[in-house]
Amino acid sequence: MFDPKKIKRIAINTGGGDAPGLNAVIRAATLTAIHHGWEVFGVRHGYRGLEDPKELVPLTAESVRGITHLGGTILGTANRGNPFESVVKTPEGEKTVDISDQVVENFHKQRLDALICVGGDGSLRIASKFADKGIPLVGVPKTIDNDLSGTVATFGFDTAVSTATDAIDKLHSTAEAHERVMVVELMGRYAGHIALHSGVSGTADVILIPEIPFDLDKVCDKVLARERMGRHFTIIVCAEGAHPKGVEMMTKGPKQAGREILLGGIAQYVAQEVGKRTGKETRSLVLGHLQRGGGPTTFDRLLGLRFGAAAVRCLAEGKINVMVALDPPRIKTIPIAEAVKTMKAVDLNGDTMLTAREMGISFGD
Ligand code: F6P
User: Fold this and answer.
1) For residue 360, how far is its CA from the centre of ligand 1 (angstroms)?
2) Exposure string (b/e) for 205-227, b if CB count within 10 Å is 16 or more?
3) What domains lie within the chain, and their CATH numbers?
4) In angstroms, how far is CA 162 from the centroid of its own chain?
5) Catalytic one of 18, 113, 145, 147
């Protein structure tokens, strides 16, 4: 039985792809835990610190000083750090083994009382399995993709959208100068939130998202309609998971053991096809990890700080195996297993979609 009054030592980990705002979470969680008189440890590189105690580092008021505005994570992270599918090299190649029991044993050996897991869908799914194995924990939703259910926003998303919007703004002047079609590929995995939000804010002419498989002829119609109106350039924003009707998402290389398959290549394909079909000069670019880099926006800093403090508050109140979630104006909690059950896709009837359509933005449908 989890008794919050007995908490003495907690740990924090950050797993999966980084997102601006991670350090804000670490700082707020650490200072709030210290306020409760608890000792705090950072688990370096995802769950690795629970496999190897040398990767467990004390977090103090000094070690979290001056980090709120910094991108990345002072703890490091790992995309291939799933203890339920740990990758080992064998003479026959890489294979995966389940070392989760060893992690649970190490957690108790380190005399840790609870864990704060900061992660996206992958890392929180792992957290949910550790909760089932008896580790008292609280999840904090992180991802630039904003695809976690149960929370209005994840931290990192606002910063990624800002960076992408800035890039789209910059593309306008060169596209217009050369009378070209510019196609930019944005991250977001299987959801189109980043493409939709930055595409609308950056006044893109076409936005292609995974939720709406597109028809290339419709995309070309938009380019040619603009030509007829004397607008000799077009900006097409493509989510990396966007795909034509009846065609699979484009991926980069085969799936590697213990990690998600990488998406990519759709912008180049769209640029080539639009060029062939319309006779327009086209160029494509992939914004890539710039969307994850740099310091968090004020929104993401504050959300990170609020999530970090709320996670510790949950532990102090004895609320475990939950994820903190934004439900403006409050931070609420939902069972962690529920949070990772379904992906949050773009709401096709939502206000942002309606706004885009009403302003004449094409979704290639
Ligand atoms: O989930 C965050 C994310 O940035 C996705 O948008 C993208 O598909 C993926 O991670 C890229 O992963 P990696 O950092 O392994 O290239």
Assistant:
1) 30
2) bbbbbbbbbbebeebbbbbbebb
3) 4-155+296-339 (3.40.50.450), 157-292 (3.40.50.460)
4) 14
5) 145
According to DSSP, the residues that pair with 141 across neighbouring strands are 119
Q: How many CA atoms lie within 13 A of 83 on its CB side?
A: 25
First-to-last alpha carbon distance for the chain, in angstroms, is 54
Confidence label for 184 from pLDDT (cuts 50, 70 and 90): very high
Cα 317 to ligand 1 centre (Å): 34
H-helix or E-strand containing 204?
Answer: none
57 — pLDDT class (breaks 50, 70, 90): very high
Contacts of 219 by beta carbon, 8 Å cutoff, 6+ apart:
206, 208, 236, 270, 274, 362, 364
Q: How far is the CA of 292 from the centre of ligand 1 (A)?
A: 9
Q: How far apart are CA 87 and CA 161, in angstroms?
A: 33
Q: Which of 331, 211, 288, 303 has its CA nearest to residue 17?
A: 288
As a whole-number percent, the residues of the chain with pLDDT over 70 amount to 100
Return the structure tokens found at 73: 């994570």
Task: Quote the pLDDT of residue 69.
Answer: 98
CA distance 347 to 270: 24
Across residues 54-72, what is the average pLDDT?
A: 96
User: Is residue 145 annotated as a catalytic residue, yes or no?
Assistant: yes
Using CB distances shorter than 6 Å, the residues near ligand 1 are 17, 79, 120, 143-145, 187-189, 240, 262-263, 292
Mean of the pLDDT values across residues 128-142? 97
The pLDDT value recorded for residue 55 is 86
Ligand 1 atom closest to Cα of residue 240: 8
Of residues 327, 341, 320, the one with CA closest to residue 116 = 320
Position 337, amino acid: A
Closest atom of ligand 1 relative to the 144 alpha carbon: 2
Residue owning tokens 């065609």: 247
